[in-house]
Amino acid sequence: MPSQEPEIKNHIRQLRFEHGEMTQDQLAKQAGVTRHTIMALEAGKYFPSLLLAFRIARVFRAPVEQVFEYHATELNL
Amino acid sequence: MSNSEKWAWWTLGVVVMTIAAYAAFLAFRRHGPAIISVFALLALTALPTSSRRHFQGRTFDEREREIANKALRAGFSAFWLAFIGLILAIGFIKGWDTALTVPVWTLGEVVWWAAILVLGVQAMTTIVLYRGGSHA
User: Fold this and answer.
1) How far is B9 from B15, CA to CA, in rounded Å?
2) A32 in Cβ contact with A58 (< 8 Å)
3) Which domains does chain A carry?
4) Tell me, what DSSP letter sits at residue B46?
5) Any idea what the Cα angle at residue B12 is, between residues B105 and B128, rounded to 5°?
6) Which residue of B has its CA nearest to A6?
7) pLDDT tens digit string along A7-21?
8) First vs last Cα of chain A: how many Å apart?
């Protein structure tokens, strides 16, 4: 049975709070997307493009792998 | 609720209202060329549900674009299925060599129903993808 967990996890919510309790709206404006997209990302309902992943990482001044985490499954390395 | 979702709900509302008006028209009058006037209601889909973004010159972000593309593909896929189904049904029921004589307004009505199908499926897909998530 394939895992039901999303393969890509992110720490956006945690990083927002570590960066002066940044709001979703502030992050969205800095990353150039809508607040709804940030909400979907945090809820694990959307996987961003590489470009957006880098943009978000840049907002937090962190490497992309600190923001996004890839979990390989048995079926999908 | 994002502007795309507002558009989807608005469009779905207009589609349902048009179908209801069509049914009401059929109940009170015979099926004829005048029924095409009901489809003028579809012009309401052109009204923007929120013009603020339009005037601010903001564009869709990547998720909104992806959902819009998937919804459009779903709408046209439904159209193709219906089109192929209709052609096959006519062919098998009437016979492949039969010549059909239909009034011009019937052709117009078919085109309007195709528009309703595309818009309806597009709007519903948009709503479902915003609710359920859209994984790339």
Assistant:
1) 10
2) no
3) 8-70 (1.10.260.40)
4) G
5) 130
6) B135
7) 888 999 999 999 989
8) 15
